[in-house]
Amino acid sequence: MAKTKKPAADKPRTSGQATPQDPDAVETDTPKTEQLAPFSQAPGERLTTNQGVAVSDDQSSLKSHPRGPTLLEDILMREKITHFDHERIPERVVHARGTAAHGVFECYDDLSALTMAAPLQGKGLQTPVFVRFSTVAGSRGSTDLARDVRGFAVKFYTSAGVWDLVGNNMPVFFIQDANKFPDLIHAVKPEPNNEIPQAASAHDTFWDFVSLTPESAHMLMWVMSDRAIPRSLATMEGFGVHTFRLVNAKGEWCFVKFHWKPLKGMASLVWEEAQLVSGKDPDFHRRDLFEAIERGDFPEWELGLQIVEEKDEHNFDFDLLDATKIIPEEVVPIRRVGKMTLNRNPDNFFAETEQVAFHTGHIIPGIDFTNDPLLQGRLFSYIDTQLRRVGPNFHELPINRSLATVDNNQRDGFARQTINKGRVAYFPNSLARGCPMHSPEAADAFRSLALEESGAKTRERSPSFADHFSQATMFWNSMSDWEKDHIAGAFSFELNNVVDEGVRKRVMNEILVNIHPKLATLVSAQTGIAVDPAGTPDNPTPSAPTPSGPIKRDAVNLASAALSMDKPAPTVKGRKVGILIGYGAEAAELTALVDALAATGVLAELIAPAAGLFTDARGKTVKVNRAAPNAPSVIYDAALVPSGVAKSLAESGQALRFLAEAYRHGKPIAVATASADLLKTCDFASSDGIVIAEPGKLAAELIGALAQHRFPNRRKPRKE
Ligand code: HDE
To answer: Active-site residue 345, yes or no?
Structure first.
């Protein structure tokens, strides 16, 4: 049926025309089916072969008689099984584990004075996007909760072509030069002799590599912080990492760093929780994203720009081309220029999430590169990997297709879909009137900035890249006490998994002591590795391939408040509460609690010893959401104990374990006054984050505590 066209006045302007495969993204009066990408398919009724022949039976193979051998002639079985045998494409070399969503980017202002970039040309301008989040080290089936960097790759389908902003949830990287990337990845991936461990950096080869690569020090602080174990994909920041350039129509340019600021604020898990989630629900992040979008709780981020004028390039005590450095927000403020909303789940994981192909080289007029040697290497690597993984026509797949017209003389190759007409596939030509033509005069055509370069060819690293520790120290200085504890705990966990004594000592005495003596002391206490700075020269092991420059001791006082996650959440929408019920609970109170929490977007689940219906003493029933054995505390953000259940929960090992774990992981625990006796059984050492209230006030009190997310300063329960 034809869709009704909205009046032009209410219609947002769009920089693209429609989300790929999504006829609803932009309303038009064309029938839906005509807008679907050619191979997008709704489930049909009649089963056919790939040639469109109706199939009588595809569950039984063709045999010479009911107990006879299968016949080679069985074209139906052979087509089905052969296709199955070829179902996989190679998983990504890195970032194999990922999940994605469609959405829209809406611009806040006309930024044409800064850049020609199509999505930034006007207030209200909308551009369709597809975003893939990922972990780096693990295989495609690995856990979402690995301690790892998260990929944050955004594909903008703009009116000027596809722009990929292929970033991470951390603003810096382990290495300064792309040529080290295969070494880094070989070191962090499972060790090659036994393929152990999966999706984890806690092993000898990784720490061996970073102990000899002091430029990793700053990034190590980020991956050992709770940023590496986010609560959800919607509660992490994103960064373009490298310094790019913005170029306006007059050819004027400035440097830029891209940021994504989550409107839900930042929140993470704690390490033990992350490890348990990895076992209980390894799909925790992808499930959370999928379910949030399905229920209309759309994740949102604001795009931020940090702008640096050309004249200020050398006014920093680090090099803007060095991807192991940030520009602190306090030094160059972030201007928020638009909002990205993820509002539609992919229809098909393989066709969209798996086949999407990002490339740092996919930029549009208005954006240009810098000489960051990491970025320069990526410009080569991404196109190469897409050719290998998806093939030379990867750009034709629906998820990768530009919404701006594509026309050039490239032809053929595996799985070509475009049926190019005519006999001209070359330039110059006269037979096609010179088409497709170049656009030498067009202001909006892509042209690289004509920047001057001079100097002798070299493999030397710029001396301006030599300070590897100041910003690592700054990160440490910027953390709250509990964040420091978590970082020291993470280093200790990792180093306690490292067997080689030489590696352990080198991390301690050539990396950690140079970041901060307090960090070294805390890790020493948990690992037994002696702090021995006397024996440690300022420069690391002479064999290190990239020695650092002198340690800048004046970094001792650097700090950036923006780096800490110790801030209350702006919203608790999407947080999950487990309500523990048992004999003595009242159905009416439970329903009221669930409704009160839902009013603020908090999801509450009723957990009982068994699934099905719970019947209270008055015979009223309420549906149980999960049976206790399937409801570990780690998949919830808080626990709630309603009235009347103190006795039954005190007798339930499962309930007591749930509460003890929730307590240990710093989660809010809300207890109805009538059940407060249960806390005597729990015997928690601290009341921090434990709220006791009448049922009518319980939800409101809990929501207040949820905004703080975790209460990390609790001591361990006495009984442990
Ligand atoms: Fe990547 N990276 N990378 N990377 N990267 C890939 O491309 C590479 C780096 C990032 O969801 C690969 O399609 C090199 C930094 C993301 O599909 C590959 C270097 C940052 C994704 C590749 C880096 C990233 C990738 C593997 C060192 C943050 C996943 C599969 C110079 C700014 C995109 C693929 C997705 C994926 C190469 C370093 C982010 C092999 C050589 C720094 C988010 O091309």
So the answer is: no
Strand 669-672 to 690-693 pairing: parallel
Cβ–Cβ < 8 Å for 691, 675? no
In the prediction, which pLDDT does 28 show? 37
Q: How far apart are CA 586 and CA 272, in angstroms?
A: 34
**304 three-class SS:** strand
CA dihedral sign, ordered 122, 124, 129, 134: positive
Give the mean pLDDT of the chain: 92
Q: Is the pLDDT of residue 436 over 70?
A: yes
Phi, psi of 107 (to 5 degrees): -85, 140
**pTM across the whole model:** 0.93
Neighbours of 542 (CB within 10 A): 7
Ramachandran category for residue 366: left, alpha or beta (phi over 0 → left; psi -120 to 50 → alpha): left
Question: Token match 């329960």: residue?
Answer: 717
Task: Give 252's strand partners.
Answer: none
Structure tokens at 658: 């749930």
Cβ contacts of residue 634 below 8 Å, gap of 6+?
Answer: 269, 273, 276, 277, 280, 281, 661, 665
240 alpha carbon – ligand 1 mean position (Å): 12
- Taking the C-alpha atoms of residue 157 and residue 128, their distance in angstroms, rounded to an integer, is 6
Tokens, residue 283? 């799909």
Residues facing residue 613 across a β-bridge = 623
Nearest CA to ligand 1 atom 20: 167
Cα–chain center distance at 544:
32
DSSP string, 78-105: HHHHHHHHT---PPPSSS-SEEEEEEEE
Q: Strand 300-308 to strand 335-344: parallel, antiparallel, or no bridges (unpaired)? A: antiparallel
Closest C-alpha to ligand 1, atom 24: 167
Beta carbons of 468 and 176 less than 8 angstroms apart: no
Task: Report residue 647 CA to chain centroid gap.
Answer: 43
The response to whether residue 382 sits with its C-beta less than 6 Å from ligand 1 reads yes
The single residue listed with the structure tokens 């979402």 is 144
For ligand 1, whether the C-beta of 178 sits within 6 Å is yes
CA distance 625 to 288: 16
pLDDT digits (tens, 9 = 90+) for 362-387: 999 999 999 999 999 999 999 999 99
| CA 403/CA 26 separation, integer angstroms | 12
Distance of CA 480 to the CA centre of its chain: 24
How does DSSP assign 462-487, residue by residue? PGGG---SHHHHHHHHTS-HHHHHHH
Match 């039984």 to its residue by tokens: 60
**Mutation pick for ligand 1 pocket among 89, 381, 387, 389 (CB with most ligand atoms within 8 Å):** 381
Question: Helix, strand, or coil here: 604?
Answer: strand
Separation CA 219–CA 370 (nearest Å): 21
Do residues 571 and 264 make contact, with C-beta atoms less than 8 angstroms apart?
yes
Query: Where does the pLDDT of residue 557 fall: very low under 50, low under 70, confident under 90, or very high at 90 and above?
Result: confident
Q: Ligand 1 centroid to 383 CA: how many Å?
A: 11
Q: Which long-range contacts (CB under 8 A, 24 or more apart) does 594-602 make?
A: 596/698, 596/699, 596/700, 597/699, 597/702, 597/703, 600/572, 600/573, 600/703, 601/297, 601/571, 601/572, 601/573, 601/574, 602/572, 602/573, 602/574, 602/575, 602/576, 602/577, 602/699, 602/702, 602/703, 602/706
> CB neighbours (10 Å) of residue 523?
28
> Is residue 648 pLDDT above 60, yes or no?
yes
Active site residue 509: no
- Of the residues 50, 65, 86, 95, which is catalytic? 95
Cβ–ligand 1 distance for 154 under 6 Å, the answer no
